[in-house]
Amino acid sequence: MFAIRNSLKLVRDAALAVAAGLIFAVSALAQTDPLPSWNDTAPKAAIVSFVEKVTKEGSPDFVPESERIAVFDNDGTLWVEHPMYVQLAFALDRVKAEAPSHPEWKDTQPFKAVLESDMKALAAAGEKGLVELIMATHAGMTSDEFQKIVSEWIATARDPKFKKPYTELVYQPMLELLAYLRANGFKTFIVSGGGIEFVRPWAEKVYGIPPEQVVGSSIKTQFEMPDGTPTLFRLPQVDFIDDKAGKPVGINAHIGRRPIAAFGNSDGDLEMLQWTTMTGGTARFGMLIHHTDAEREYAYDRATEFGRLDKALDAAALNKWTVVDMKADWKQIH
């Protein structure tokens, strides 16, 4: 009888040990997946293959850490860009906040359209109207004052659809990708059509990307010494537009190295991906985020005003860039 009980105990202990081993193995496997929010589809495999190829010493495609530069668009690539660009939402809120000091805006476009929430008239104002709004709401102050305004706004503003802070509407799969690249010796940069000083105040906290690794559009600033205090004053003049063909120029000016990986989502990123991938030598990687998930986020591409993906989508097929289908390739969005 004792022998039977002893045998049963040994069997039970062995079963428990096997079960514990399986749990540990599954847990270890989960921990080794650097991209858990990505489905096991072609884009995830392409990312992992590229990273392994350029980081394996002795590989013909090995790239030294100093040359492992990856650049990311921001709007629509790292966080939500519909129903409008986040910085445009900021500018509209700034117009409304400053309107009491500018009674003339009630009868002047594009400010009149903003105050009356006339999105059709605002859209008709086009790029010229957008520049006017930016100049009126982003200039006439020091860089420190502007940074404070941005930081306060980003902490309190809410997206109209999800009712959450914009900084909570970053894409979880892309946060994992940023971390995965950095863990493999990459230096990650934001290269945005948005304002460089709009993105810098919060980029490190949200993306782990420090201010010096943000490239973006800018307005002119000048050094001044009011009351003996050194300041940088923001002028109502465009300095540089970091969009489309401007992105490679911005990369060259700020980074000084050609990236080996580029990630975007729209035609505004076309030239950045071309600059990154259409060259000989080192292995290169280009990726486009295609917004296909109307249920969890938004679905848009060729016909949208914000984040139009048309020419770049065609170029992706020709240049063998990886295209992420958000609905099919991502387990979760935010």
TrEMBL record:
Keywords: Hydrolase, Magnesium, Metal-binding, Signal. The keyword Signal applies. The keyword Metal-binding applies. Pfam families: HAD. Transmembrane segments: none annotated. GO terms for molecular function: hydrolase activity; metal ion binding. InterPro entries: HAD-like_SerB, HAD-like_sf, HAD_sf. Residues 1-30 form the signal peptide. PANTHER family: PHOSPHATASE RV3661-RELATED, PHOSPHOSERINE PHOSPHATASE. This is Nonspecific acid phosphatase. It comes from Rhizobium meliloti (Ensifer meliloti).
